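Incident review: delayed structure delivery

Summary: a single-chain prediction request sat in the queue longer than the usual turnaround. Root cause was a stuck worker, restarted by the on-call engineer. No data loss occurred. The affected request and its eventual output are reproduced below so the record is complete for anyone auditing the incident later.

Affected input:
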Amino acid sequence: MKLKFLTTLLTLFLCLLGSETLANGVEVDGIYYMFSGTNATVTYLANGTNNTPAYTGDVVIPETVTYNRTTYRVTAIGHWAFQYCTNMTSIKLPSSVTSFGNYAFYHCEGLTSYEIPNTITTVGMYAFSECTGLKSIEIPNSVTSIGIYAFQNCTSLASVTIPNSITSISNYTFTGCSGMKEVFIPNTVTSIGVKSFEKCTSLASVTFPESVTSIGADAFNGCSGLESIDFSSSMTSLGDRAFSGCSSLKTVTLPYGLESIGGGAFSLCSSLTEVFIPSTVTSIGNAAFGGGTTNLTTVKVDIKTPITTITQSSFFNRKNATLYVPKGCKAAYEAAAYWKEFKSIVEMGEANDADVNNDGDVTIADVTALVNIILGKDDAEPYLYDHGRADINKDGSITIADVTALVNIILGI
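Output delivered after worker restart:
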């Protein structure tokens, strides 16, 4: 009886010891794991310390691992598994792994490139955050979810291709990726999250596919190298400060379909000289083109009835800018609060019958607009083209002869 009691007590003790060991992770061939059922998750140090990196050099994770005579299948990289492994230079994962946990590769500065296996479906939040040495990352179409801050401050990351399995770019995903020069967004993405590309200072251009309907607050805030934006015609909303501080941006053509421009959306865009606002816009936020837009001298609005919700800070430089409005709407704008404070208000096409692009002047830009009409390239930005004025020589057709006539007008011949 006594022997049976001691045996039971010893068994209970070993079970408790085993449970504690599994709760903190166990080491097998230099890799730490947690076990659940028949699956294994790669974890951090066995003693739970989060300050001493366990892995260095080239790390290979096996597909299966045997512990206490039981074989487990490795299916996940757990939270914090490789965080602060600054001397880990590469890692190879088996096809059995389907997810990365939060902070999985946080601060792994030694990683310079990585190809995420095509079995991964989820990349946790902060997964590759602060991997400052990471120059390239390949995200397969198997990935359907990328967590917030996943690639935050990966300052060496030069380009990213978002897979077409992604439908939204999470908040802060690529914030602080100052070395990023290009990003490819697929036509499956419908929304761009808050601060998702904030301070990507090397990003020169961005093209939004037709699937994108909204851009979140501060999405591209501080992208000082951004020079051009190709908006989606499906876009309906532009978040607060979405492009604030994009100091290299010179012109902005907002798409028909856009309904609201967030507060401070283009504030601090110090190089911005011209903006076009389509007829679909019903709301312009406070300081939308506010402080820092001192070079914004041309504002074109294809809105017949002046928007009444704007404030005195919506157009910071209005007293030094020319406002172009639809034909027959000049009087309405001259009587509308804040709109009437523009330096001058001109009806588009009012200045001259040869003003093909409706900017109030007859210049070489009108020749370009006329050529685009002849070539049939005027559909993308219809507000730029007045077909009625394109027939410069009034012969009833728009041909190369009109280009010659327009050049003669410009040259004073």
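Verification: DSSP finds five helices and 27 strands in the chain.
Action items: add queue-age alerting; document worker restart procedure.
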